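Dear support,

Our group has been running a series of protein-ligand predictions, and this particular one with NAP is the one our PI (initials K.S.) wants archived with full inputs and outputs. We had some confusion internally about which version of the output was final, so please treat the block below as the authoritative record. The input we submitted was:
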Amino acid sequence: MTYELVIIGAGPAGLTAAIYASRARLRTLVIEKEPFGGSQIINTESVDNYPGLPGISGFDLAMKLRDHAQALGAEFVTDSVTAIGSEDDIKYISGEKGIYEAKTIIIATGARHRKLGAPGEEEFAGKGVSYCATCDGAFYKGRDVAVIGGGNVALEDALYLTKMCRKVYLVHRRDELRGEKINQEQLLAKENAEVLWSSVVSAIEGSDTVEGLRLRNVKTGEESFVPVSGVFVAVGILPNSESFIGTLEDDGGFIVTDAECRTGQPGIFAVGDVRNTPLRQVITACADGAVAVNAASAYLRTLG
Ligand code: NAP
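Confirmed final output from the archive:
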């Protein structure tokens, strides 16, 4: 069967595209890598900037989006997409379980955590090094931890950890934070949080588990050791675009699109964190999903 639209990915961008496509009565299939999981939002404790739903948990928002799409009739399949291609007006989506045919594709595969690349990071992964504060924070109740990074994720992770940890260090390589001002204010107001400015991690050290961080101040060159039991790495994201690189133009791995989420290939669109967008928020991901379905519908009309 040839779908009118195949959406690859079921985070906020893909699920919103599924809602709009279902309302447009497009024969739509959503391919998700893991059932109900994988998207960054699932591991976000609280989404404080989605209009009208202040403080909603990332999990609850994701489930609401999914329920909405399913209630409208969107079809879901679990598969891992390895490549896409096209012949005439038909697109082919190759997954590990099968090949799917569609007239249009929306890529909504999102992004994943970037690694820090410091000595000890691999060795202590799961033994004190984590990439998800909401998943692993509870293991460090009453203990001292560090969060690495200065973006929104680092600030939100650090804030979350202040609720259960004795002390939370935020280690940032510059003397100015990148994340939103409101997140900065909230963290700096916490008595058990301390920012270690202009500091980079030379090594994560320990024996069986993490015992501390070796830091270097980039301004003074001074070396220090900060004893912590947990290190939460939050140094940015990498796009989940490997299956499309070569077929589609990218900029540092982020798929290049125009304002209507069109890639250079007619009938193929990219939305949310995987595309080269100036702002990566839940609301912009959702907006992309709506815009892309509108553009896909216009493209389908040209096919007659
Ligand atoms: P991000 O905004 O790119 O921030 C990454 C941080 O890690 C930056 O502070 C960066 O330092 C630092 N960094 C990068 N490489 C490093 C290295 N090798 N060593 C040390 N530090 C390093 O990434 P993010 O916080 O993961 O957020 C991803 C996207 O999601 C962003 O667009 C963000 O705004 C968005 N987001 C938004 C919200 C929200 O609105 N509430 C919540 C979560 C995420 P520099 O500052 O020096 O570059």
